[in-house]
Protein 1
Amino acid sequence: MKVLYIDIETGGHHQTYLKALMDISGKENVLVLPEKIEGLNAKQYVFRKTDFFNKKLLEYYKWTKEVKGIIKTEKPNVVHFLYGDVFYKYFGLGLEGLKKKYKVINTIHALKKGKIGIVSLKRVMHLSSIGVVHTDAIFNEVKDAGIENVVHIEYPHFSTGYDIDKVGARKYYSLSENAFVLGCIGGTRFDKGLDILLKALQGVTGDFELLIAGAEDAIKREKIEELARPYRNRVKLYLDFLTDEEFEMAIQAVDAIVLPYRKTFNGASGPLGEGVAKGKMIIAANHGSLGDIVEKNHLGYTFESENIEVLKKVLNMAVQRTNYTYDEKANAYKNKLSINEFKKQYCKLYF
């Protein structure tokens, strides 16, 4: 059994996701990536890195042609596109003919809104053997659209077991021992709404601190510092790529994970899963999968997406909950996020 994995990034959770799948026994792994990952016991092909979401048709076509050439050379049993969202823009162009020779798995992380997004996804799934989504909300919407060859595998937590207590984690990020710490963890992409949170915090009272930890992206340091000026002494800013250990320490250090994502985001959230694994309060925008997961599983609080005033009220309430604990429903969801269950479900698809 040979599985050929294709991904368009190696940063953030892309690498931990890939490593978890590679750990499924009984198969040979071949990787097609934009850069080599050191220390992996697998054959790796590297393609020319490009801006996948702003790329022109010719660049996209060259990439699909290069990937199909590698597939033809390797002759795998399974071709697994780990970020099938890349096919939305050109309606799956380049996937033609693959599933006649190989089992083609496409993992879709977010659902594009509107009729065009669904039409594109229908074609992508028509050209795939099976699709994978990570949330109930997306699964139900896809099925309602008439797409049958899709399964739901819950996005797991990828905690490495790095053992550090809350006190030690707070020392690492220079946070106070007794303050209520809000965490915005991960890259500062525009759709993740960090600026919405920073504006809302201008009207929050109480003993709080904010940890922003992750790679600098669309929302730059200058903008963050400008919006956080009224409470700048309460902000700990760590704009850098996080190692697995630093990511786990960031999650451990906070009392609440805040997910102020814009309405354009409709997928699974890595920080949500990692926060749940450590029993953290989750504060999330109420649209799409995020709101559905938090509300159904009693994980914390939701607020009207992109509404700064409502988020302000929720934050003022949350920072007073110093004794927050999970109920039975939340703990049941926490148990579902096992990495072993994730691998078990994918194993069924491969074999």
Protein 2
Amino acid sequence: MNPSSPRGRLRDALLCVGERGDLDEADLSAAVAAALRELASEALDERSRVDLVTVGAEDHPWGRSLGLRLADYDVDLSDVLLYADESHLPSRVRESCPTLNQEEWEAVLLVSKLVFTGLQSEPEPVRDDAGRHQQVTPRPPRSVARERFCLALAAISERPDLHQDELTAQLRTALLNFASETPDNKEAAQRIAVLHTGEPQQRPRLCLSRSGVAFAEVVLSADGSPVPSCLREEFPDLTQDEWNAVIQVTGLTLMAFETEPARDAE
């Protein structure tokens, strides 16, 4: 890890959530929250709503895993993006990224959902302790597929020795191995590429293969867009601030896995 910049510190904190270990959930949440606030103050200023997001868990029949969640609504960010990927291309995004089409917008949301899913911890059995306080136990290690996906994401910023075509191939393969080769996932994988873009210097970033627009730019350009109707149907009490928080944290997470800009690396 390279924790010397806000992006590096956020990347380090996010990767710790799914790592094997016995770090307390509150400590994990505090580390992620601090890193999010730091990068948000640099990228979003007073628009930031990242404090509405926390690290938490929900018990499912298949187990319990840690991930990023809306604190008050108590829903995974990955679940919000799952239903949002049916939304229409927001006008704000169309204005900021005029070359973007509807299919690419849906692919950005789908891949972002998979990124949050990949950063979650592996499910662990739900234990019935009859009301007794649960002891902190080590989280199970990441599966091979999940670990390779996390490594492929981290390689964008941490492997300057690799050509962008190799980084792209690794990421596409790791995504499909982790998320399964459904038609939607296969189509989304073909829309991603690691390309050298950005200011003040060209640097490896996760981008759309056709238009070359960075995923982080696409997502953050949607900040402030109205809550999509498809989301209101699934989450009727979701507020505008919470939707803004999902967009902002998604964009900042994608930024965390980009190569550092020159001004941050100095």
Protein 3
Amino acid sequence: MLKARMTLAATALVLLVLGSVAFWGSTLRDLLNLAIVLVTPPLFFWFIVRPTKAAKASQRKAVE
């Protein structure tokens, strides 16, 4: 879990640094593009890594 969080944080940081150019000549369209660039990769990462409902249920049964 820690590795996933570190990867997510590193991805956001790299994209923030690369996307910060948009603030220098920031129009509304630039800011929208920056928001899309920053939000999309972590969102896809979360969809891939998140546990399914079946996995969550099996974890609950294992704890009990």
Protein 4
Amino acid sequence: KKIPKKTKDNFSQEDDFNRRLIHILSSSVLFVTYFENELKRVYGKNSLKFKEWKKEIGAVYDRDFAYRFCYHLRNYTQHEGLAIAIVSISTGNVNPEKECTCNLEIVPKKLIETSYRWNKKIELELKSLKESLSVRHLLNDLFKSMISIYGLENSFFLESNYEELMELIPKHKELYPENKLPCLIPTSKQELKSGKIKTIIPLPSLMDINRIFVDLSKINLVELIK
């Protein structure tokens, strides 16, 4: 789309890109933090399960620069300032008004010249970088890390809930035929007299359990057998 100029009522494109980046960084940290809190709630902070998780997520942190850097960059954007320093636009040859590419870059030197206290390891890595960081490449690498973390989280959930899920399948088949879906109908005397029901709340069914296993099969945690 054509990049709009800044007006009194909207952000400039630089502000808008930075706002979107902050949202992505915060969401990725929240994605991990929420799962950690669930593990602590279910197993406890000192449990073997939680320690195993910290070991696994620590391995991702040590292995992937993008995840490690974005984890700390999120704190930087929360407490210090905006991350994207350069926004350049290249237009298409066919229709420049409708085709353009925005190249977003982070300048490591500008990050470490602020008053923000960076993690020592990250600070050394930023100092070693001689060129700016492409936001596109950085986020592509971050998403790869998040996919691997998503797989880890599902493996922990599967291990904890597999037996219960398997027990629910025959129980559900016993209570409801597979071609019927259970539901909850909150009602009142007036509705019963009139014969008109306003609210129907579908309940989790065999279809929902099957969907869980289908989703897990897509990340190779289970194998579906016909």
